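Onboarding guide, step 5: your first structure request.
Type a short instruction followed by the sequence, for example:

Predict the 3D structure of this protein.
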Amino acid sequence: MGIPADTDSTHFMEPLPTPATQAGRDGLAAILRRPARTVVGLDFDGTLAPIVPDPEQARAHPDAVPALAALAPRIASVAVITGRPAGVAVRHGGFAGVPGLEHLVVLGHYGAERWDAATGEVTAPAAHPGVAAVRAELPGFLDGIGAWQGTWIEEKGRAVAVHTRRAADPQAAFEALREPLTDLATRHGLVVEPGRLVLELRPPGMDKGVALLDHVRRLSAEAVLFAGDDLGDLPAFAAVDKLRSDGVPGLLVCSGSDEVTELRERADLVVDGPEGVVRLLRALAAQLA
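The system replies with structure tokens like these:
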């Protein structure tokens, strides 16, 4: 499936790719047929923003916001669904005050926080007390099990994460920490969310699948696209499968990574990281113009 050449001399329109599965092709056809009833859900890190060694330095791909601003007015909603605090994702994404993004929301902390571009406001429930307890205990806990070398703690407001990407053997450190951190989280009423060389301790009951289903159902959407790159995106993939079984066509997109093969295997369409996601969004916006 292709689209005509862009009239803007600075860009050529990207071809709209064909999903590898029939379910994905049906999902894309439904999006093109009913854009005003479509929700596009997107992870942030690894999907809209390239993965970097320090998450505080992560920023959306430079072409992401223009692509989203072109697409968002043509569909029911764009939802950025992330484990980050909503306000952090808004700042790192550059989403605030952009014309065309009035239909964008950021569902931060797996949906526990919500930022609406139309109002610029963040709404959220009270924080889980277990997060503060883990935050206080974690430095001594890691030191006590000899796990400091090459690991570091990321403060996430309503969650806390331990990264192993800087360790001498990142994957070995990740595997060694998984069980003790799960025990620590359980003691404080939290759960562990594994990711790409990161273990996040957060409150139970919310994940990207729950957030996506709630948003789609709130809008009575009739088609959905979700793009992600990490283990934390698997619940959103499962949510799209659930919606399909309920008669809502969907398209699953993997922002390509060799680190998370399960996501690639379950996707209808694999694109080349955040740059590929941007190309897909741009092509979809052009097709709907």
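Each response can be followed by summary notes, for example: Residues 14 and 51 are 23 Å apart (CA to CA).
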